[in-house]
Amino acid sequence: MASYLVSEGPYGRLVWLVPQAKPEVLAIIAGMFAVTYFSRAAPLLALSRVQMPLWLRRWLSHVPVAVLAALAASSVLVSDGKLALHGGNVYLIAAVPTLVVAARTKSLLLSVVVGMCCVTALRAFGIGAGAG
Asked: Does the residue 79 lie in any domain?
């Protein structure tokens, strides 16, 4: 369902189509918000009052890096659910100079730019799936 809103503007009369959401959809969105918010806020609130041991804080500091590495590795090494260690894998080829730049410069921006340029160049030369 939708309703119409008519307003006068500098260019004359404007008619706006205003969509109206069903109550069920709004309830689902509110539920998703609540689950997402409270699942993130509850541990934060609970752990903010607890003094964690140093070894646990050190261990937890490695979690974001490990998650990012796992996501990056699966994106680079897996294609169509299979291990893709072949010359047509543009992401694997582009990862080599990107890792070299990242190790030498420690610059996230430069690493991202090098990776994007490598993938673009490889696809422009027709290497890898999805090229052309």
From this structure: yes
Same domain, 113 and 65: yes
Domain that holds residue 72: 54-124
Name, of 15-24, 47-56, 95-104, the range with top average pLDDT.
95-104
Task: Say if pTM beats, i.e. exceeds, 0.90.
Answer: no
Beta bridge partners of 18: 3
On the 0-12 / 13-18 / 19+ scale of CB atoms within 10 A, 40 is: exposed
Side chain identity at residue 59, one-letter code? W
Mark whether 70 and 38 lie in a shared domain: no
Contacts (Cβ under 8 Å, ≥6 apart) of 4:
15, 16, 17, 18
